[in-house]
Each structure stands twice: as structure tokens, then as C-alpha cells.
Amino acid sequence: MNFESPLIAGKLIRRWNRFLSEIELENGDIVRAHCANSGRMTTCCTPGSDVLIRFVDDPKRKLKYTWEYIHTGSHWVCINTSRANQVVKEALINQSIAEFSDFPKVRPEFKIGQSRIDFLVENKDQKCFIEVKSVSYIEGEKCCFPDAVTTRGLKHLNELMEIKKQGDRAAMLYLVMSDEPQSFSPADHVDPEYGKALRKAQKAGVEIYVYTCITSELAIKLGKSIPYSL
After folding, report:
1. Rounded distance, CA 112 to CA 107, Å?
2. CB atoms within 10 A of CB 175
3. Which of 13, 178, 182, 229 has the smallest CB count inside 10 Å?
4. pTM, whole model, 2 decimals?
5. pLDDT reading at 113 higher than 80
6. Dihedral sign computed on CA atoms, order 217, 222, 225, 226
7. Which residues have a Cβ under 8 Å from the Cβ of 4 and sit 6 or more positions away?
8. Cα–Cα dist 109/127, whole Å
9. Contact 144, 191 (CB under 8 A)
10. What is the residue-averaged pLDDT of the chain?
């Protein structure tokens, strides 16, 4: 997934709220940037950190910049959660995710009842429903999800279990927005109910996959599969 425009270097002054941040550019200008991340960003919002933002030339937008990356001291992390689905979509279409490489048909945002699942992939014999979560809670070589209590995340796990019960494949794909981590686990210390539900989903036959991202100033690409522990 290539960025739509060049990234601009700066330093984080502060995150005002869930969707607004203040950035100092290298020339000293201070700008406000949209923060496309509704989580706590526990390890990704330290004031003074190097960041990369993107100018968005859209007259309809109040904020002309979007915050994309933060450097946590050892690696870049993409904090824009919308990028996860874009990376996964590209990888599914290119059939570069090994577990889904035999599914040539990819349908994003597939509606089921009153809900939507991120992706439905199909071949002539099978369907698989895939829900994607962006992971930016990273501590060294370990990462976890979620970084805040998530009722929406619980809902998605329950939907995947119901899909599996009906006879189709169902998968939870965690996309780590960095190439640093080497292992993944649910954040029981943040949301114990989510951890319980994830273990229940696995026992019910929901598949779990964790992939990293390869990040650069030009693009974000699918990285490698890493192990998880529940």
C-alpha cells in the first residue's frame, strides 16, 4: 500500500483527544493533524517523539494533515488504523497471505445481517470471513490487543463464532503495524473479557493469524507471520 502523498517529518507535541494531535514541523511551524486511532495508543503518544504526517489536499477537510507514524525509540509504528485494512486488501488481492492464497475472489466490507465483516474471500469450494484488527500496542518484541476496552471487538468475535457455527471458515487477522514484534497475545490486563472471548473463539474453530508490517516513508506492506499465545 503506497501513501497517497509524501510524508512530512515532525515531533509530537501532544494528542489533544482521540482524533486530534498537535505536531511541530522541522521548520518550527505547529500544525494540527487528524489522529485516525480511537484507542489509548498506550505506547504510541509520548510527547517529543518523532512522527511522520501527511498533507491532505481536500477542501472538505477541517484538518489538512493526517498523522501516520510515530517512532517509539526503536522502530516506526503506523498509528493510522485505517491502513490495516488497506494493507490486508492488497495482500489478499495479490494472494500473498499464505492462509488465503487459494481464494481469488475478495469482497471487502461484506454485510451480514446488521453488521459488516472486513473481508469475504471465496473460491469455488469455500468461503472464509476475515475480520482485521490493527495492533499498535507494542512493547519491545511483544505486542498485544486491544489497548482499550473494546465492546466492538467482542461483537466481532461473536459474529465470527456464529459464522463458523453455520459452516463457513472464519478468521481473525491481527496486523501489527510495525516489523519489530516477534510474538502476540491478547491484552488481558487491559480487557480481560476480550481475552476470554478470543480463547473461546479459537476453541470454536475461529482461525487466528498475526502478521507484521514492513514500514517505510513510501509504503506499508505485509510482513511476516508471527506466533501468538493465548
Report:
1. 12
2. 26
3. 229
4. 0.95
5. no
6. positive
7. 54, 56
8. 14
9. no
10. 95
